[in-house]
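Dear U.,

For the methods section draft, I wanted the exact inputs and outputs in one place so we can describe them consistently. I've listed the two proteins in the order they'll appear in the manuscript figures. Please don't edit the token lines directly; just add comments below if something needs changing.

First protein:
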Amino acid sequence: MTRKQLVPLALTVAAIAVAVFLVRRNRAAGPSQLAASGTVEATEAALGFQVPGRIVAVAVHEGDRVHAGDTLATLDRTELAARLAQARAALAAAQARLTEMAHGSRVEEIGQARSADSAAAARLQDAQRDHDRTATLLAGGAVSQETLDKSKLALDVARNAAQQTHDQMQLVLAGPRVEQIDAQRATVTQAEAAVRQAEATLDNAVIRAPFDGVVTIRNREPGETAAAGAPVVTVANLGDRWVRIYVSEIALGDVRLGEAAVISTD
């Protein structure tokens, strides 16, 4: 390599060394300042009802501070309250029926069944005596075959009625079957679920603040009809704020991931 070729190379190396020295000196001197535009943002929640309906009250205005659990807006709950009352009445009826079935037949029902069985047995005995008497008269030629046939038919009817009455008495004495009680218990469970659903629907007709914050938008007014999920009130969580800064491409080299920064506004 000639002397003329070594001179430009030496100058280039010297320029790189000076640049590195200046960069290190600036970093050692302290943090650099960067002018950039940006915004201060916070987590926002656009709150709405889970059920549709007519709004009867919006308790807050834009700029109001709210606390978690505060009531912000309410729907007309007249119809929802009626549905809840209906569900509770159905549950009470199902529970009463289950209690009745679990206790078995009442004493009065058992007495009535036994009385009916005794009466049916007595009618069967009368029909049997009438038939026997008619058969005797027919043998003596005192009555016709048609009369005997009628007495036989009456005897069969009385016998069937007595059997049905006796079977009914046995059912009353035994009480409801286990399968019937299980089915009624399932009906009670279904009615309880219907009550919980009606209670949840009624509770969903009220908007409550999910966290402490500030109302930024009052989207709806009383008297309006709101669809399910439509924003009614927007609340910003000031406890969860951050700064979004837009850095120009020229200054990107001065920014390092994880580097501490102090931010101040103009």
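Second protein (the one for the lower panel):
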Amino acid sequence: CVAAHEAVVRLSGARRQLSRDNEALHTATGRTEFLADFIRSVGAADTPLDIAEKLAVRWQKAFQTAAVCVYLVPEEASDAVEALLVEALGAARPMLVERPSGGDVVPNVAARLALPNAHGRVDWLFEQLDVEFNPHGTRLLPLVVGGRAVGAVVFELHYPDDAEAMAADMRASAAVAAAMLEMAMTRDRERRLAEHFMALSPGAGSAGVAESLAPEQAGRADDERLLDVITELAAGAAHELNNPLAVISGRAQLLCRDEADPRRREMLEQIAANSREAAGIVEQLMAY
């Protein structure tokens, strides 16, 4: 009887371990499928808000959450924050909300807080949304790439006690999403800068006008045409260089995140750092 009892205990323990292993495998598979589906869904012409929508919809489905809101960090000169809200039934709505008057758009969350409560940290956002989030079950996860926040995911968990168990998977997914968003935001910013620079060019008719001016006026017109050429050069450099540089930097960071070999990780970090340095040179050209 004792031997039979011990066998039953061992069998019960083995079943519990098998159940935990199956659950872990199911979770890992679900995360892999979520990331693969999300990456495949993003197109080269997608705007940052398009990517935010694809992220929010898939986030809700993969992690079985209630309402999800993804918002993006605006440029310094902008008072509006782009946000994408997915309600409990999966309906996606783009929104514009006012940025907070004081403090950062994405709060600096301590590393020890795996999935901190969003209430008390982004109340400025909740005040402008027409959806009620559970104050005890809503979490905040910044979207950070290269040490800089590009946005955040705010989501309501059906079972808040499961937050710690899902934290690692959610953070890994957020890192990939942040890299995708950063590339799209860089591409969008450079496109708008290029359009702005091209709009400054007076057009082909300026040459004929300069011919009829006095010598000193014609000299100024020549200087203006030279500046137009520099402007066009800067716009072309922004478009042709910064887009691939953003892709190189983003992909290097993604590979670095999963690289276990220290030497290869260091090489990937160098690729990302040098890509950012090259992009900074292009920005200096445009500033000039």
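Candidate sentences for the figure legend, describing the second protein: The radius of gyration is 25 Å. Strands lie at 65-72, 80-86, 92-98, 138-145, 148-157.

Thanks,
Y.
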